[in-house]
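**Archive record**
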Amino acid sequence: MVDVALTFENLACGYGKRPVFTDFSAGTLTGGTVVGLLGPNACGKSTLIKTLAGVLKPMGGAARLTVSGQPVTDPRERYRRIGYVPQDLPSSAALTAYETVLISATRSAGHSSARRDAASVMCELGLDHLQGRYLNELSGGQRQMIAFAQMLVATPEVMLLDEPTSALDLNKQLFLLGQLRCRVEHSGALAVVAIHDINLAARYCDELLVMSHGRLMGQGKPAELLTPELLQEVFGVQAEILDHEGVPVICATA
């Protein structure tokens, strides 16, 4: 089991000279947990994910990664330990689904086991029938699943997913989040997921970060954090919260 932690120190992120948020100081995120990022559109969820993944450079502050108690400061080492699933894979790449996963497997394990690892992950996710198809021949949902496979095969200590279920039907949403939950529990990795569906987040996430207009509105366990007052303040929605075996279920009333 890996011992991993992500600590925020007044993190500022944005695009160009335009900050999306300027003082993000959430509590430490630790391995063995799935953390959900919730909030309305343009609140900063994707910006935070991209900054943690290294796609965007911080405008200030820091997000510090430690593994086994040791800080990871080298950019290449940090890149190796972090996996990232964007909202969609670029369909213009002249690669088959298998080649896409194989590239990630080769970077992680080298040539010795890469082919076996790539084929194994695709089979495990029920994607083996897509191996020979090019990315531009796949639906958005299929590309999301290939991106998920590409991340899993690299076995990163930190998994960052930006709206990974947005193009999936309900069955595949449950399957992907179930697979992610299983990986986290067995490896001790940390998963941070930007997600819109509050009920999916409540069901599959151990902890939630709720954001609005570039500010952190709350952090905690779903059953403790999700209240009618918070939902009204952040989403402008009146809702009743039911309990299903300890998992909150949000029922909008207006």
